[in-house]
């Protein structure tokens, strides 16, 4: 076992303990006896200091030309590439995802760096004819100010990058409050921002608990924007608080994503997609496939294939190269998933595979849950409606394409979605009729790319998009009029006479 890493806050370019000097531990979910890191238990005083630093830095950072700001982010991308393996190993140990996926998580951060850096030369506004002669009318993008970024543990590098990189290129300064389950990943990431030479106070890091440091950030009067990814419950609090305190807010919350498999689908392809979508990252993605909507003509055959294939998945530590499915992130997630399977049983669902905590051999020391398939599920059951966030997929049978789409849409969420079919007309109808921010045709519900807008409709979000849509979150429009006529021109009056 290695010595735990000592994580610190990063405020105005300095590495600091919490004012209280209190710390908390973060452990390895594959072996909860191993402490991976300790981190500061920050409170209001630490948050105040970080916000003051970000506010001070904003005065000059917003004036740095966007292409120059982008060069810092490009450098972060290059450093991330150099440290990719080290970060991936740490991530596997700290939150449990298999190494290949952890590398993918860091890669998503690298992709985001290069994409965001390019945006530094593309912060276009528009010009439009004025109503008046000798007058220009145009729009320009302005930064928002001090942005609080509150991020989850399931993508401990990619999601902070999605938020911080575009925010910085647009001229904002940021305070990252990472999940208490992944403080070490966040610390390593911010070390890279530090090494890229960003001016003091432009990026700040405050560790701590959501209900303490996170809450203090969201409630603070000197924060201009909160970008939050996490549970719907916390998101509702963040949204309400930002409404009350007049902050901009970008919320990315739950999903109940479905994959439809029609009777004409390539079943092998649909199977690979379903297994990856449902059990990749142990189902701990907001894009995870948690419902399989199966046409009755292929239901029996596909279910059999799925059971066989899922039964072969190997549970283990993410750091073990033979692992297909890692542990859940912590004890409360394990308990949540167990409880949902219990609810499903009580509702009349049949546990076709899995359905229990895994406690064989070394697995007993971690938070492992067997990949689970629930059959005989109807759309009204809670397991078909509520986000489970674990390796559990429910099977719902349908008789037609129209019914499949209606059931897919019958959820309060709307993040990702997928349909497997060989019928071009159905593919286009699905693109049009599925109510979700992301739709895949013949691909799984997971695997969004950074240059496309990421986010969902209905209760998944609040209308914003991240990644390829982030510039719109982190800037606001200014309308600019330049009158060079040399005389007063009264709009709506002089040009109508
Ligand atoms: C998330 O689960 O919050 O599309 C993000 C995907 C990843 C991102 C997931 N690229 O599955």
From TrEMBL:
- Catalytic positions are 252
Q: Which Pfam families match?
A: Aldedh
Q: Keywords for this entry?
A: NAD, Oxidoreductase
Superkingdom in the source lineage: Bacteria
**Would the keyword Disulfide bond turn up in this protein's UniProt record?**
no
Gene Ontology molecular-function annotations: aldehyde dehydrogenase (NAD+) activity
> What SUPFAM superfamilies has UniProt attached to this entry?
ALDH-like (SSF53720)
The positions making up the signal sequence are none
- Aldehyde dehydrogenase domain mapped to chain residues: 15-480
Record keywords: NAD included?
Answer: yes
Q: What is its EC number?
A: 1.2.1.3
Family affiliation: Belongs to the aldehyde dehydrogenase family.
Please give the subunit comment from the record.
Homotetramer.
Q: In its UniProt entry, what is this protein called? A: aldehyde dehydrogenase (NAD(+))
What is the native source organism of this protein?
Iningainema tapete BLCC-T55
């Amino acid at each position: 076992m290695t010595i735990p890493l000592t994580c610190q806050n990063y405020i105005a370019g300095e590495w600091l303990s919490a004012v209280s000097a209190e710390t908390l531990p973060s452990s390895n979910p594959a072996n909860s006896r191993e402490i991976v890191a300790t981190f500061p238990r920050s409170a209001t005083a630490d948050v105040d200091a970080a916000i003051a630093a970000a506010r001070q830095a904003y005065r000059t950072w917003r004036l740095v030309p966007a292409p120059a700001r982008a060069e810092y982010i490009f450098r972060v991308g290059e450093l991330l590439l150099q440290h990719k393996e080290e970060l991936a190993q740490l991530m596997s140990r700290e939150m449990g995802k298999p190494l290949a996926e952890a590398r993918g998580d860091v890669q998503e951060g690298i992709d985001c760096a290069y994409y965001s850096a390019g945006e530094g030369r593309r912060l276009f506004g528009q010009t439009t004819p004025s109503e008046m002669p000798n007058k220009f009318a145009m729009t320009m993008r302005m930064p928002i100010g001090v942005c609080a970024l509150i991020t989850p543990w399931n993508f401990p590098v990619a999601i902070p990058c999605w938020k911080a990189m575009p925010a910085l290129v647009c001229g904002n300064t940021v305070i990252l409050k990472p999940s208490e389950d992944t403080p070490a990943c966040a610390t390593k990431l911010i070390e890279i921002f530090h090494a890229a030479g960003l001016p003091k106070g432009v990026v700040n890091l405050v560790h701590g608990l959501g209900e303490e440091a996170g809450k203090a950030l969201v409630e603070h009067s000197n924060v201009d924007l909160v970008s939050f990814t996490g549970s719907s419950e916390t998101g509702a609090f963040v949204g309400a608080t930002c409404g009350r305190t007049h902050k901009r807010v970008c919320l990315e919350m739950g999903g109940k994503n479905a994959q439809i498999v029609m009777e004409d689908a390539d079943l092998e392809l649909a199977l690979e997609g379903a297994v990856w979508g449902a059990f990749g990252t142990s189902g701990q993605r907001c894009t995870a496939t948690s419902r399989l909507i199966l046409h009755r003509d292929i239901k029996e055959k596909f279910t059999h294939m799925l059971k066989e294939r899922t039964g072969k998945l190997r549970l283990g530590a993410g750091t073990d190269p033979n692992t297909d499915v890692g542990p859940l992130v912590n004890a409360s997630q394990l308990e949540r998933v167990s409880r949902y399977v219990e609810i499903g049983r009580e509702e009349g669902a049949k546990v076709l595979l899995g359905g229990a905590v895994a406690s064989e051999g070394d697995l007993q020391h971690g938070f492992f849950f067997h990949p689970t398939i629930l059959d005989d599920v109807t759309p009204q059951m809670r397991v078909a409606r509520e986000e489970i966030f674990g390796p559990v997929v429910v099977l719902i049978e349908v008789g037609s394409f129209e019914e499949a789409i209606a059931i897919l849409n019958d959820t309060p969420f709307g993040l990702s979605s997928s349909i497997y079919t060989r019928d071009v007309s159905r593919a286009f109808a699905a693109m049009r009729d599925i109510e979700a921010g992301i739709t895949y045709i013949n691909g799984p519900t997971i695997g969004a790319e950074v240059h496309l807008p990421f986010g969902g409709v209905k209760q998944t979000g609040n209308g914003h998009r991240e990644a390829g849509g982030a510039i719109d979150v982190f800037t606001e429009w200014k309308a600019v009029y330049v009158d060079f006529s040399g005389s007063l021109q009264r709009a709506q009056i002089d040009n109508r006479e």
